[in-house]
Amino acid sequence: MTQVYFNGRWVAPEQAQVSVFDRGFLFGDGVYEVIPVFAGRSFGLMEHIDRLGRSLAAIDIREPLERHEWIAIIERLVRDCPSPDVSIYIQVTRGTAPKRDHAYPNPPVAATVLASASPMAALSETIRREGARAITVPDLRWARCDIKSVNLLPNIMARQQAVAAGASEAILVRDGMALEGAASNLFAVIDGALHTAPLGPHILGGITRQKLLEMLRAQGQLAVVESAIPLDRLFDASEVFVTSSTRDLLPITRIDERPVGDGRIGPVWTTLNRDFQQMKTEQVV
Ligand SMILES: Cc1ncc(COP(=O)(O)O)c(C=O)c1O
Asked: To which CATH superfamily is domain 125-283 assigned?
C-alpha cells in the first residue's frame, strides 16, 4: 500500500491518525486540494498550490509548507503510486488544540497536514458514449464557496441525491441561478456562446474551469459569457457540461429527466474536449 505524507513523516495510511481534538475532525476547520496526474505528470500543479495558499489564507492558517516542499511530496506520491493516472489529495487543518473551543487556539498550534494518492477512477463506457445525467438541487451551501473547505456536507447531500436518482452530478441552484455542480463547474452552450458562472463567493474557482477559459481566450473562436445561468436558460441550452480535475470535461445529456438539446453529446463539447486533451498533454509537468 502506497505510503501517505502525514505531519512530516511517510507512513502507511492506517498509521496516519488524527487526534479526536483535531479541529478538522471537530469543526471541519480545514481546507483541501485535489491535483490530477495524467500518465505520471501533473496538470495545473502551480495553480492548485496557489489555490491551496488562497484557501489557507482565507481561514488564517499559515501555509505549513513551502512550494518546493509541496512539489517534492507530490512527486514522491506520483512516483510511488502504481497507477499512471492519479488523484493527489492534500488536506490541511488548523491542528490539534488542547481543548474544544470555537475560537482559534492561542497560541496557534501546528497544522495537521495529509497528502495521499489514489488511482483516478475511469468514466464508464456508457457515459463516454451517451454523456452523463444530472439533477438540479437547491444550493444549501454557505456564502464562501470560493474557499475549498473540508466542510462538504451540502455538497455530499447533493451528490448523494444525484447518485440515488441514477445521475452523475447535482447542479446547485441558488436564487434561480444554476451555479456549479456538487464537485464541478458548470458550462452551457446558449445561442452559440459558452456560459459559466463568474468567479466570486458563490462558486469554487475550478482549475479545470480556469484552464479551459485560458484555452478559449487563446483560441478566440467561441464567445464566453461569465454570468450565472438562469435555470430556465439551462434547460434551453443546446449543450451542457461540467468540469473538474478528476472528470475533465464531462458532457451532461440529461438534466432532471429532460434531454439537453437533442439528448446526445454535442459538437461544441467534442471540439473543446479534443483541444483540452491536446492542451493537457502539452502542459503537464
Ligand atoms: C464545488 C466545486 N466546484 C468546482 C470544482 C472543480 O474544481 P477543479 O477543476 O479545480 O477540480 C470542484 C472540485 O472538487 C468543487 O468541489
From this structure: D-amino Acid Aminotransferase, subunit A, domain 2 (3.20.10.10)
